[in-house]
Amino acid sequence: MRAKSTLIAVARSRSIRLAAIAFVVLFVGWRWDRTTGFTGLPRFGEDLKERRLPVLQTLPIKDSPRSGYDGQFYAQIAVEPNVASPDLGRALDKSSYRPRRILLPLLAYGLGAGQAWVVLQIYALLNTAAWLWLAVILWRLLPRNDWRHTAAWLGVMLSVGALDSVRLALTDLPAALLLVLAASAMERGRERIATLWVLLAGFTREISVAGALLVRSTAGSGRTFFLRAASTGPVLLWCAWLAWRLPGPVGHEGNIDWPGFAFLRQLVSNLQLVLAGDFNPRVVFGVLGGLGLAAQSLFVLNQWRAFAANAWVRMALPFAVLFWLIGADPWLDYRAVARDCLPMTLVFNLLWARRTEASPFWLLANVIVIDGVTRMAPP
Q: What is the pLDDT of residues 321-331, one digit of tens each?
């Protein structure tokens, strides 16, 4: 009993949250290099070195093995935000797809005054800034007066979806942050501000337009339709213009599948590997993390009755549905699914913490925290 009381007291203290913040800041700082700065975060692939923007050819950029990762493309858009530039078209893997997520690159370009080296450093750290901003917001939404609140706060901030976005300089976490700002604005009755936040989220990551459902007006269905159209229309027009103006594929093949098919295929495949003795973290957490995300989705879907009254439920339900529709390509690594469904993870923890009757066993759905924390350590 005494041990339990001690654990609850620790959970209610600010120390554990401050330690989590220090952990993330420390390991981001650890990736700084005296020569290359923070250019290791966006993962510039050495195989794509000759295709980089000419202005980057002379800069000291840290190379990553093989083809790198997606953050390198958004970083190059930040350096050259003219999406019609032939040089940018050669640098991108999908010239009409990557520029959909234009907001972070534009922000980095503006803050860096167009200076390529400065812009790269700013872009690399925007996710860290978004993570810290979200930490502050959730600290307010989940005060320290209940151990559940701290558990939920950690479940979001240390989730693999949030930390991988920071570690790889992607768009998932900033988009989720903007949706949180929108839902918070709706709770305060500021529907126009919420509409703006959703619009910005859509320009950060186009799938975030699904969050437009959280916008709801007390003035009636006509006003609600107008606000939702205002938060999605410009993003859809931007995506349509890019598809018309620029060559190349407009998305990834295999992103969508029949409900649950891709999830079950990867679950069975990874289970077979584990039973055969393969304990690679990607395989083990492909099982544990996949099941955890499925539990989060079911929990959120079960809140459908609160759809009309609760902005958080309206924000998360589309992503809880999306979880079951995600196709084989993202499921090659469940962490991509965790990033895609980050708004679902966030609202799952928020709703669980606010329901005192909810079983603590639901916290097992946050097993992805273990994977997120271990992956933050430098290689």
A: 999 999 999 99
